[in-house]
Design brief:
The protein has helices at residues 18-26, 29-40, 46-55, 62-70, 78-87, 100-110, 140-152, 169-172, 185-188, 202-206, and strands at 3-8, 90-99, 114-123, 126-133, 159-163, 177-181, 193-195. By secondary structure, the chain is an alpha/beta fold. It has one domain (3-206): Rossmann fold, CATH 3.40.50.1000. The chain has a seven-stranded mixed beta sheet, sandwiched between helices. α1 packs antiparallel against α2 and α4 packs parallel to α6 (100-110). The chain is globular and about 45 Å long. It starts with a strand and ends with a helix. The mean pLDDT is 95.
Length: 208
């Protein structure tokens, strides 16, 4: 019988925030990091903060985006946790409020079955500052996990979720095993397990 494991991307499978790496190139890191931190702590509406942050990326060349996305740092233990879960019958997927440009190559590298995220809009090879996709809203991850559970015929008791920020709360509502990975306080309160060291192999101990 299959089980489902859903991982957040930024600061969970990947060690950092994709948008911060983009912002660094534009000299806007401090400004964007401040908005990201408030959104992940639950102080800002996720959709509003996402649109605001992406608007600041206007003019960034698509080639630069692709270059950054190919070189994002893998979280310690990410490969091992994916393989370890798959060996125990889990279908492993990734939900990200970030960007497909990053999640698609990254998840392929890790052997993850599917990634659900957002798309950065571009014209003539540069970002326009617009964004759209599957994970735009604070309740998007919860909506998607229910659809996957129905599609795969997997119950919440056989569902594991791992994330770090406020936009992971909606998927936490539909899983019996909820791991806050180096998580914000708001997520830790909703978690069944908290991991405070940067090593995803610790997740395997949760399901032993």
């Amino acid at each position: 019988m299959s089980k489902l494991a859903v991982f957040d991307f930024d600061s969970t499978l990947m060690d950092g925030e994709t948008i911060d790496f983009f912002a660094e190139v534009l000299g806007l890191k401090e400004k964007i990091v401040a908005i990201t931190n408030r959104a992940m702590a639950g102080e800002l509406d996720f959709y509003t903060s996402l649109v605001e942050r992406v608007s600041l990326l206007k003019g960034l060349p698509k080639t630069k985006v692709e270059e950054i996305c190919k070189n994002l740092p893998v979280m310690n233990g990410a490969k091992e946790v994916v393989e370890g879960l798959q060996a125990q019958g889990y279908i492993v997927v990734c939900f990200s409020g970030g960007f497909r440009e990053a999640t698609e190559p990254f998840c392929k590298k890790l052997g993850i079955s599917a990634d659900f995220s957002n798309f950065l809009h571009s014209e003539d090879g540069v970002l326009t500052g617009a964004v759209g996709g599957e994970m735009m809203y604070s309740d998007a991850k919860g909506d998607m996990i229910v659809r996957l559970q129905n599609l795969l015929d997997i119950d919440r008791k056989d569902t594991l979720v791992v994330g770090d920020g406020a936009n992971d709360l909606s998927m936490f509502a539909y899983a019996d095993t909820r791991v806050a990975f180096c998580g914000k306080s708001i997520l830790k309160e909703a978690a069944t397990h908290c991991i405070d060291i940067k090593d995803l192999r610790e997740v395997l101990k949760v399901i032993e």
